[in-house]
Amino acid sequence: MITLSNVTKIYKSKSGSVTAVDNVSLHIREGEIFGIIGYSGAGKSSLIRMLNGLEKATSGQVIVAGRDMANIKGRELRKARQEIGMIFQHFNLLWSRTVRENIAFPLEIAGVPKQERLKRVDELIKLVGLEGRENAYPSQLSGGQKQRVGIARALANNPKVLLCDEATSALDPQTTDSILDLLVDINKRLGLTIVLITHEMHVIRKICDRVAVMESGKIVEEGEVLRVFRKPEQPITKRFVQQVTEPEETKETVSHLLEKYPQGRVIQLTFVGDAAEQPLMTNIIRNFNVSVNIVQGKISQTHQGAYGVLFIHIDGTEEEMDKVIDYIRQQQVEAEVMTNVE
Ligand SMILES: Nc1ncnc2c1ncn2[C@@H]1O[C@H](COP(=O)(O)OP(=O)(O)OP(=O)(O)O)[C@@H](O)[C@H]1O
């Protein structure tokens, strides 16, 4: 659905030039929810804005739904943009228009006749769950409701792709989850391809199929979300994964344990999918002559299955502890012996 080949975006100004996107190649499949994560300034906005022609690539090729976005203009560009909806962090609604009028706006621009427009707006209001709020103005809506208007407006012209630019960053955690659920629902029901940019791993974990990690204009890591959670390769990816798996207290607890029990071992276990559901601890305690102390644990649900991290402290003879670690690894559970915590 979307293919970027060697895309670079350089901004030139009097004070010099900034390479915001640096030779990025990427393929996003039809119907998937693809996340791009990075810290502020990584180049995410520049990248997503090239997908709908709001920015032109300095070099390289951007193909969206069969169109070369860098080389189309005028009518063809307007047509291409109708097939690419976009939602924003601060919603970008028209404040003097009601919910209904905001959603109707792109249909007016596309020249859809009035009767058809009214029907389509009603459908969209139902789709995003805004029944009863049709005649409210944006200032009378909660943040979540405003984003629902933004989503309905973005979907008005039946786009093939929905771009989400930090769409939940201005919302509280509960509202964030309800908007993410709505995006998954729309993705399933309409088969829409969704590309989102975010700095929050929670968003990626909850709804994305695949993720690309961006740093200094480059994609430094890319893959299935579950794979990236299980085995993040780059230091920046590890930091993002820790946002959702490893609370601050864990580091303190582990450091404390390493100091307090220098003779034992603190082990980080990582479970994925079915491995998260087996009675591993019971088997260790029954079959090996070690003491086991469960320190901390958390199971997270990703879009593709469960992922869990558990910290345990074991103590016994060196030989017996080695046997335990071998046993754990045989159960398709990753075991990392902690030596120090960064
Ligand atoms: N219109 C512009 N003119 C000049 N420099 C720009 C422009 N837009 C972005 N930049 C620069 O390009 C780099 C990447 O910015 P971009 O907004 O794409 O990153 P980002 O990851 O989306 O960050 P943020 O979340 O803060 O927007 C930054 O150094 C930024 O200052």
Explain what you see.
This protein is of the alpha/beta class. It folds into two domains: 2-243, Rossmann fold, CATH 3.40.50.300; 246-338, ACT domain (Alpha-Beta Plaits, 2-Layer Sandwich). Helix content is 38%, strand content 30%. It is built from twelve helices and 14 strands. The radius of gyration is 24 Å and the shape is elongated. 35% of the residues are buried. The model has no long low-confidence stretch (mean pLDDT 91). Bound molecules: adenosine-5'-triphosphate. Adenosine-5'-triphosphate is lined by residues 11, 13, 18, 20, 38, 40-46. One of its GO terms (molecular function) is ATP hydrolysis activity. Keywords: Amino-acid transport, ATP-binding, Cell membrane, Membrane, Nucleotide-binding, Translocase, Transport. Residues 2-241 form the ABC transporter domain. It comes from [Anoxybacillus] calidus.
Defining traits:
single chain; 342 residues; alpha/beta; Rossmann fold; Alpha-Beta Plaits; 2 domains; 6-stranded mixed beta sheet; 4-stranded antiparallel beta sheet; 12 helices; 38% helix; 30% strand; elongated; binds adenosine-5'-triphosphate
Topology:
Blueprint (H helix, E strand, L loop, with lengths): L1 E12 L2 E13 L4 E5 L6 H8 L7 E6 L2 E2 L5 H9 L1 E5 L10 H11 L4 H14 L15 H13 L5 E5 L7 H18 L2 E6 L2 H7 L2 E6 L2 E7 H6 L4 H11 L2 H13 L4 E8 L7 H8 L3 E12 L2 E11 L2 H13 L3 E5 L4
Parallel strand pairs: 3-8, 3-9, 6-7, 7-8
Antiparallel strand pairs: 1-2, 1-4, 4-5, 9-10, 11-13, 11-14, 12-13
Bound molecules: adenosine-5'-triphosphate.
